[in-house]
Amino acid sequence: MNLSSDQQSRLTGEGLHAGYDAQTVLNGVNIVVEEGKLTVLLGANGSGKSTLLKTLARTLTPRDGHVYLDGKDIHRSNTREVAKRLGILPQGPVAPEGLSVKQLVGMGRFPHQGLWQKNAQQDADAIREAMAYTNVTEFAERNVDALSGGQRQRCWIAMVLAQQTDLILLDEPTTFLDLKVQVDLLELLSRLAHEKSRTLLLVLHDLNLAAAYADRLVMMRNGQIITSGAPREVFTTTNLKRVFDLDAHVIQDPESGCPICVPRKLHHSITESALVV
Hints:
The protein is α/β, with parallel strands linked by helices. It contains 10 helices and 12 strands.
């Protein structure tokens, strides 16, 4: 995804090289996270999508390159100030034992609660609105660990919403959830972008769900962005082969117009020797 001077974005990455210990994962990545859109990072395991998200989220410091939030280097910015503008939901978050849903959602207010600066009414309003929008109000007094996986994930999203940031980064928010629950969560996240003008960047694994819900897809392989754009432009047979080494047909859903990936079935002839018992 190339940077351009006429494209305004609050969150950008330039020339990012990042990794873990001696292993380099990102190799000179440039990215512009488009405002008010739901962008999905796609790629095979080890392609660098989660590493890129962590680098943009300030949880992993790049070896080279810069991440800019509102024009300032995010890795040199104050943690609380960043948290007022950028919400993060890591993969597989775990709540402290015995924490109620309301208490968990209330943790999203931390950036706004200075030592001498607290506004109980503002906090209560933000918590109430976040729980209502994610449909978890009825669970307010229940323990988070007593809920189903989908319900817990909605509570975590409510916590990020209570943070009242316009930018939200989520690392595989639908992993290990049933298909219906995945769809419900992506419907929620899509509404956040399109009804609330939030800017969302997600890491997803399911190709067809990504193509159905993303405004933009960013496809990665070997620590680099191979292609990016609207799903109808980049979700193609050629790109699926380039990025995933996947042989597949891409057809169009007649109702939504979204592209759908249908893997090619490999037909193996059955030889006579294979039938011998």
